[in-house]
Amino acid sequence: SYLWKVWEGHRMAQLCCEVGGAIILEDTYRTRLQMLTKYFRSRFSSIHCCYAIKYTFCEMLNLLISILNFWLMDVVFNGFWHKYIHALAAIPVYDWQLWNMMTSRVFPKVAKCEMFVYGPSGSPNVLDILCVLPLNIL
């Protein structure tokens, strides 16, 4: 993200400043579109080629980072993705018990919580309770 922000330099925002508005007149839109078309067909093709190369490099870097994140998650969670394939295969055959078992290993649905409450005398009490994690159920 940082590398692209440095390389891009808000070039697209400057080029499309009037075209991307919510309410724009048809004449203004056509005039601006003709200006953009003329600009991209101009003699600055080396600038556009360099821009495209930088964009492609950043996208490839994003793909590499995503793959490394998958690999790191697999290492941290002891082969999670190798086991998760079986859970994904359980969906088409409606084996929800296997799906529930596999996903509960990484996304627990219940956790131990500590709740601080104050008693009638005003002294703090700590209660150990089970908390339901609703987002992990989805």
Automatic annotation (TrEMBL):
Its main location: other. GO terms for biological process: monoatomic ion transmembrane transport; phototransduction. It comes from the Eukaryota. GO terms for cellular component: gap junction; plasma membrane. Pfam families: Innexin (PF00876). It is found in: Cell junction, Gap junction; Cell membrane. Transmembrane segments: none annotated. It is a multi-pass membrane protein. GO terms for molecular function: gap junction channel activity. Keywords: Cell junction, Cell membrane, Gap junction, Ion channel, Ion transport, Membrane, Transmembrane, Transmembrane helix, Transport. Coiled coil: none annotated. Structural component of the gap junctions. Belongs to the pannexin family. This is Innexin. It comes from Drosophila miranda (Fruit fly). The lineage of its organism: Eukaryota, Metazoa, Ecdysozoa, Arthropoda, Hexapoda. The gene is GA14306.
